[in-house]
What does this fold into?
Amino acid sequence: MANGLVDGVVLCRVGAARLAVDCQEIDAIAEVEGKTWDVGLAFGVDGTGEGRALQCHGQLLKVDSIDVLATPGLTVLPVPAALQGLGDGVLTGFIEVLGALWPLVSPSLLLAHLERRAE
It folds into this structure.
């Protein structure tokens, strides 16, 4: 999504990395149980224990922490040309929150990326 708007994001931490996900792309926030995909693998970070999970398309994405920001009309900044296609196109833009840029990722593309890495 380039130069679009999102009405709320889920802010996640994975080790020292941070990422944001459009609230409308998440089915639920859940406890980590059963089969989960560790988002840390995409960031070169080992799992740090319990964490929380984002449910998307019936699958769980494990992250270290989750905060929900229900601010309507957050502007999505475009992905610079040098970063387009990085990580199978998982990065869809950036948002400015709490004085910092947060990478906005597509959870469905992130799931597909992690599945490919597992093969």
Observations:
- Residues 28 and 55 are 5 Å apart (CA to CA).
